[in-house]
Write a structure and sequence with these properties.
Largest sheet: 3 strands, antiparallel
Strand content: 5-15%
Mean pLDDT: 74
Strand order of the largest sheet: 1-3-2
Radius of gyration: 42 Å
């Protein structure tokens, strides 16, 4: 189709495009050879040297092909199809990078941007770019910024360090503790400071006192002088003032400088068995030569200190704001700083979050954290885990174990070594309670209204509805009944008393001291133990037990809060404290069969009148 239509400069690139679509990228010599075999008429007027040069010139002049030069000198150029433009079968331009960018700016949700990224390579390049996610970030979170929180924290720290150094005592300490008019390293100056600081803050302080501090022309040495007005500068008189905008040098004793003493100070490693002696000596000489060259090069030019980027990538910033790891709210300086597990009430008082909210927050943050996120974000997630471990009340063992296990093993959260050990000990403690937390739960789906029950229910653990697939938490959990309780319930007999209820680690027996009859340790009614715990459980049925904290405004020695007078909770609380008497079980006769004669009812006994009282009973009454 292409041969004989137009000049060779017109036919060669289009023929190469058809060929590259089937073979992929090719080098210029290989492509020239294949084109000469396919169209020998086009290569007749060129020799073996001129033909590859002509092919390369024709490919570079065609916009739909891309020619990439080699990395090293002498490498051949590679020709490939340009992926920034999308063409139709009729060779019409459908879209390029600029068109995809305009399309992406009109999208409003991240899911639509993800669909756009899956269309072609050029659309993916545009969808992952900063302009698209910067536009989404502005639309979704108008008050969000791209400032790196680590950079803000470092700037705040430097301000505090500068304020701590800005005094006459620091100036006197540097000038009197160090030798005057002598070249000094930055590490010597840091050691002479009365408080800990950074090289950048120290250089900024020295630049504010140009008469007392000087810097060498290469910027690596410094000199101090206590009395410059009395001709104190002699050896370092020609040095310049300290430049605060230059990168601070690395201290001499720092490991990152790579300097220090000469030679290889590493511990010798034993050579593996079977290695020839000459080869071993040659390897040792090469290693010594390489280490000496590396130490000399590092001493000549120390590596730069890694700097914190001032701005985040828009895509990363959108993820942090969308998952709640960063907030649009400004610092609450007037009301004080909040911990990760706290919130402000309407009266501007700090309170701990509800257990359900705190568990949901910790789970979402642990699942959303990434290893390349700022250190401030990792510290926030670590504080949330701390609130999960120490601020959640007694209970919720299963879900706390799941979240903590995910944070320590599966998540990308960066945790210190000692903190990880502490959380692992707490995890072992929580796992001991998981088995005791299992109960019989009642569920109701909020979406479809379906109801179900489960014998594998735990606090704050969701189950999926079989009708619509929505997850729901149990609205009621009771203790699992034992075999004796189930048999007694099926026979209609009274339920046996539980000697020990260890659902929440609390013994329901009375713990009073020995005293009068009925006030021993097994009475269950002693005011010094858990007053009325067992009768309350018998009256209200099986409950999820936990030891409530004793409050100042509570009544009763068991730590139970009493409701206001006249309320239902107050009446129930009063009834729970009353002593319960054991009544004999009633025997009910079975219903009569059809056709059987009904037995006559026994007449109730008649009350004896005062006149019919016997003389013996009257005498006994008078004697009493």
């Amino acid at each position: 189709e292409l041969l004989g239509r137009g000049s060779a400069e017109h036919q060669l690139p289009r023929l190469a495009e058809r060929m590259l679509a089937a073979t992929g990228p090719l080098e210029i010599p290989e492509l020239s050879t294949r084109l000469a075999r396919t169209a020998p008429a086009l290569a007749q007027g060129y020799d073996a040297k001129e033909w590859p040069q002509f092919v390369e010139a024709a490919m570079r002049g065609y916009g739909r092909l891309k020619v990439e030069d080699g990395v090293l000198a002498g490498d051949n150029a590679i020709v490939s199809i340009c992926n920034a433009v999308l063409f139709s079968v009729s060779e019409e331009v459908i879209s390029d990078t600029a068109v995809w960018l305009r399309v992406a700016h009109c999208l409003s949700t991240p899911s639509q941007v993800a669909i756009l990224a899956s269309l072609c390579r050029s659309s993916r390049e545009v969808a992952d770019g900063a302009p698209v996610w910067g536009k989404l970030l502005t639309r979704w979170y108008p008050k969000a910024t791209l400032l790196n929180p680590d950079w803000l924290a470092q700037a705040e720290l430097e301000k505090r360090l500068e304020a701590a150094l800005d005094n006459d005592y620091t100036l006197a300490a540097l000038c009197r503790r160090l030798e005057n008019d002598t070249p000094l390293d930055i590490g010597d100056l840091l050691n002479a400071l009365p408080q800990q600081s950074t090289p950048k803050v120290l250089i900024k302080f020295m630049s504010s006192h140009p008469e007392n501090f000087r810097q060498s022309p290469d910027g690596k040495k410094f000199a101090v002088c206590l009395k410059p007005e009395d001709n104190g500068w002699k050896n370092c008189k020609e040095w310049r003032a300290v430049n605060p905008f230059q990168a601070p040098p690395v201290p001499k004793g720092d490991a990152s400088a790579g300097g220090g003493g000469g030679g290889d100070k590493r511990a010798p490693t034993p050579a593996p068995m079977g290695r020839p002696t000459e080869l071993r000596e040659n390897e040792r000489e090469v290693a010594t030569r390489d280490s000496a060259a590396a130490s000399s090069s590092s001493a000549a030019s120390p590596p730069p200190t890694p700097a914190i980027c001032q701005q985040l990538d828009p895509k990363q910033a959108f993820r942090l704001y969308h998952t709640g790891l960063l907030s649009q709210r400004s610092d609450q300086s007037r009301r004080g700083k909040l911990e990760a597990w706290e919130y402000y009430t309407e009266s501007n008082s700090k309170c701990t979050m509800a257990p359900s909210d705190l568990l949901n927050l910790a789970e979402s943050r642990v699942n959303s954290i990434r290893s390349n996120d700022p250190a401030v974000v990792h510290e926030l997630v670590a504080q949330t885990i701390e609130g999960l471990v120490y601020k959640v009340p007694f209970g919720y063992w299963n879900r706390r174990v799941r979240i903590l296990t995910n944070a320590l093993n599966s998540s990308q959260l960066r945790i210190g070594r000692e903190q990880r050990k502490q959380y692992e000990r707490k995890l072992l403690l929580f796992m001991e309670w998981v088995k005791k937390e299992r109960g019989f739960g009642y569920y109701q789906c909020e979406a479809c209204g379906g109801r179900w029950k489960s014998g594998f229910s735990y606090e704050e653990i969701q189950q999926q509805c079989l009708q619509c697939g929505t997850f729901a938490k149990p609205y009621r959990i009771v203790d699992l009944e034992s075999t004796a309780e189930r048999e007694a319930r099926e026979k209609g007999e009274p339920l046996p008393k539980r000697e020990d209820s260890t659902r929440a680690g609390v013994n329901l027996k009375g713990k009073g001291k020995k005293g009068k009859k009925g006030e021993g340790k097994d009475s269950g009614k002693d005011g010094k133990g858990r007053a009325g715990a067992l009768p309350w459980a018998q009256h209200h049925g099986q409950q999820v037990w936990f030891e409530a904290p004793s409050l100042v405004h509570s009544e009763g020695k068991g730590g139970m809060r009493r409701g206001p007078p006249g309320s239902d909770s107050a009446a129930a609380w009063e009834r729970s404290l009353r002593p319960r008497t054991e009544e004999p079980s009633r025997v009910v006769a079975p219903p009569p069969k059809a056709g059987a004669a009904t037995p006559p009812k026994a007449a109730p006994p008649k009350a004896s009148s005062p006149a019919a009282t016997s003389p013996a009973a009257s005498a006994a009454t008078e004697a009493a």
